[in-house]
Amino acid sequence: MSDSRRGRARSETTRRALLDATREELAAHGYDKLSIDRIAHAAGAGKQTVYRWYPSKSALVAECVLDGAVLPAGNLVPDTGDIRRDLRDWLGAFAGRLARPEAAALIRALTAAAAESDDVAARCYERLTSATAGALAARLRTAAPAARHASATVAAEALIGAMLYRLLVRQPATPHFLDSLIDTVLTGTQGGNGTVPAL
To answer: What is the pLDDT of residues 149-170, one digit of tens each?
Structure first.
């Protein structure tokens, strides 16, 4: 193996160590109290290495969160023919992930990082929210073929946004909340009769 190949391997090993250390730091201390010194020490790297690769705390946190899988995969929205069941299963899986303390800490940290940086916000939307919302919107349009693209997208973003809001205000996404959320998105002001409106 060449020296250059060994160098790349060491760099990737260090990168992984930094991201793992950042996850642990966020879980233990949160975004506001995140310490680059502690992260570098835990990863066995120099502080200058961290800043060479990540020019800001928000950039490091974004890479840390976006490198992992927090939201259910964007292309795995079920389609059994029953839209309520499919949304309930998907949202239930999402709620299960958000209930894990480490995942909750990462999402809260990413929200704080995105609020500080337009670049982080754009990366968050492109690599996380956009694909997930797109998959949900596609499933909603399958259930209501007459649905307008924009309306289905708004409905999908409402589902994701409500879940994230619940996380940020530290309220559990209970089964009752999930059912109410699905009812609101699917029926809205249509009388709550259980039919799927043209979104």
So the answer is: 668 888 999 999 999 999 999 9
Please give the full DSSP string across 38-61, using - where no structure is assigned.
HHHHHHT--HHHHHHH-SSHHHHH
Whole-model pTM above 0.85?
Answer: no
Whether residue 4 is predicted with pLDDT greater than 50 in this model: the reply is no
DSSP 192: S
Give the residue ranges of DSSP H helices in the chain: 3-29, 36-43, 47-53, 57-67, 83-98, 101-116, 118-124, 130-143, 149-168, 175-187
Between CA 17 and CA 27 the distance in angstroms is 15
Q: Buried b / exposed e across 43-58, counting CB within 10 Å, b at 16+?
A: bebeeeebeeebeebb
Separation CA 52–CA 6 (nearest Å): 20
